[in-house]
Predict the 3D structure of the following.
Amino acid sequence: MAEVHLQHGEPLENALRRFKRKVQTEDIIKEVKRHSYYLKPGERRRAKQALARKRARKKSRGDRNPRSDRD
């Protein structure tokens, strides 16, 4: 659970900015989205495999630099 304590004389905007940063680093939003609905084990496996394929495609697309082949 992310907690941010207000320091004496600190504006609320600064504390809110620190809170948002802390929530982002702790991946709380990602965890909430993951638990927002139930996925059957097979669906979860298929989603994980699809994400892996997407990452592999993206990585291979970045490797195709024509200028690097000339060196």
About this structure: The chain has one domain: 12-63. The mean pLDDT is 87.
